[in-house]
Every structure is written in C-alpha cells, then in structure tokens.
TrEMBL record:
Subcellular location: Cell inner membrane
Full protein name: Dipeptide ABC transporter ATP-binding protein
Signal peptide per UniProt: none
Organism (species): Aureimonas populi
Domain named ABC transporter: residues: 4-242
Family indicated by similarity: Belongs to the ABC transporter superfamily.
Length: 242
C-alpha cells in the first residue's frame, strides 16, 4: 500500500536581485516517487541537489510551486493550515539536529507527549505511552523526567524518534537524521530505525548525502542532481551501478 506519493513535485525559489533581474532556483524539478508501507526510500544526492526541499514540501513546511503530494491517497499540496492538521499527524519528521524536536528547558517526557496531547490524548495516557516509547528506543522509561542535556547526541536522536513515534505516524521523514553522529552511533540509530520499520510497519523517507548510510537502511533509492531525479530503483542496484 502506498502511503506517500509525489507527482511532478516542483519548487522554485525566487531570489530578490541585488543587481538586475532576480534569479530563480528550481530546487525540485518534477520529482515523482512512491513510498509504500513498511519500506525505506532513500533520497541521495550532493549538497544543494534538492533533497531537503523535497522533505520540506512533503512536510508542507514550504509550499510547493506545482505538483501533487499524496499522503495516504489524499493530495495535501494545496491544503491550508486547518485542513492540513488531520493529515499532519500521519507524517513526522526527524531532523539532523535532535534539538530541533526537543525543547532544552522541558523534561523529555513533556516533549514526547506534546503532539498527542495537542491532538486530544489524555495526559496520563500519553505519558504511559511515552515510557513505552522510551523503552522501545532503548532508553529507561523513567527518563521521562530528565532534560535533553543529560543525554548524548545518539540518545537525543533516539528521544527525537520516540517523539515522532508518539503521533503513531505511518510515515517518518528523516532528514540527515544520523549525519551528525559518530559512525558507531550511526549504526545503532540506523538499526533502531530498521527495527521500528519492521515492528510498526512505518514507512521511512530517508534523506542523506552519505551513500554508505543509504546502503545500510534503504530498500529503494532516488538519486537527485540539480533538483531532478537522475536515477531511481532498488538500493542494491542503484548503489552498485558504475
Ligand atoms: P540539499 O538538501 O540537497 O542540500 P536543498 O533542497 O537544501 O538541497 O537546496 C536545493 C537548492 O535550493 C539549492 O540551490 C539551495 O541553495 C536552494 N534553496 C533551498 N532553500 C532555499 C530558500 N529558502 N531560498 C532560496 N533558495 C533555496
Ligand atoms: P537543513 O540543514 O535543515 O537542511 P539548510 O541549512 O539547508 O537546512 O537551510 C536552512 C534554512 O535556510 C532553510 O530554511 C532553507 O530553506 C534556507 N536556505 C537554504 N539555502 C538557501 C538559499 N540559497 N537562499 C536562501 N535560503 C536558503
């Protein structure tokens, strides 16, 4: 079952000109892909190739210029804030920097339950679930009362993953989610993501500039260059191609 699909997704950035005519960057140019339940689709490419732009469009953090974005079959590309809300919970993002998901001043349990509580889950129930999620990502359940600075980078990324999972998403968009971690810690977090995908059937859109990392976790791969898809297919084939 397809949980996420883009059709000719295009994003242009207009840059105000200092001198003469303003330049235009086509950051994503007619990008089409499908992501199925329980699969990991990698988007790889050099810096500036448009990977993050695709992620930001899919999350509707920026507005696409044209094309469709179907989340669980529904096109969300044109929806306004209020109409987006019911769709948003199905798709959660994990950033390179876990501090983007975790408020340093509040206990991690509060960060984990924030989304579910906003969507109407009773506090006590959400906290119970937060403890279970911490256990799932390999941290002690009683860590709910501790603050982000008490954890290592890898642990913080696990907590950010727990926060994403608290919304019971069908899709996780991981944007360079292990890129800032040491290689040994990277492998552990990748194992965790693979485990989550298997146990919960979550689909992962995995954005990385690192082919070695992509090879470790992706089923399928899209290669981007200057905003365009230049190659796509099964990871084993794409990554071994000359
Ligand atoms: P990647 O994630 O592969 O590094 P990006 O999606 O961040 O690539 O960037 C793709 C292109 O779009 C680059 O040329 C980048 O400079 C440009 N770009 C990204 N965000 C903006 C923005 N907010 N305004 C103008 N140009 C942007
Ligand atoms: P991330 O590390 O999350 O991918 P980036 O470092 O690519 O973020 O970009 C940070 C912010 O700067 C984003 O909001 C992006 O849209 C913006 N940005 C990236 N490239 C450009 C650009 N060439 N011109 C203007 N804004 C840009």
């Amino acid at each position: 079952r397809t949980v996420l699909e883009t059709i000719e997704l295009t994003k242009r950035y207009h840059r105000p000109a200092l001198f003469g005519k303003g330049a235009e960057t086509v950051a994503a140019d007619a990008v089409s892909f499908t992501l199925k339940r329980g699969r990991t689709l990698g988007i790889v490419g050099e810096s500036g190739s448009g990977k993050s732009t695709v992620a930001r469009c899919v999350m509707r953090l920026v507005d696409p210029s044209s094309g469709a974005i179907r989340v669980r079959g529904e096109d969300i590309s044109d929806l306004g804030r209020a109409a987006l809300r019911p769709h948003r919970r199905h798709i959660q993002m994990v950033f390179q920097d876990p501090n983007r998901s975790l408020n340093p001043r509040i206990p991690i349990g509060e960060s984990i339950i924030e989304g579910p509580v906003n969507y109407g889950t009773p506090r006590a129930e959400a906290l119970k679930r937060a403890r279970e999620l911490l256990d799932l990502v390999g941290l002690p359940p009683d860590a709910v009362t501790r603050h982000p600075h008490e954890f290592s980078g890898g642990q913080r990324q696990r907590i950010a993953i727990a926060r994403a999972l608290a919304m019971e998403p069908e899709i996780i968009v991981a944007d360079e989610a292990v890129s800032a971690l040491d290689v040994s810690v990277q492998a552990q977090v990748l194992d965790l993501l693979a485990d989550i995908q298997e146990r919960l059937g979550v689909a992962i859109l995995f954005i990385t500039h690192d082919l070695r990392v992509a090879a470790q976790i992706c089923d399928d791969i899209i290669v981007m260059q200057k905003g365009r898809i230049v190659e796509q297919g099964e990871a084993a084939r794409v990554l071994t191609a000359p």
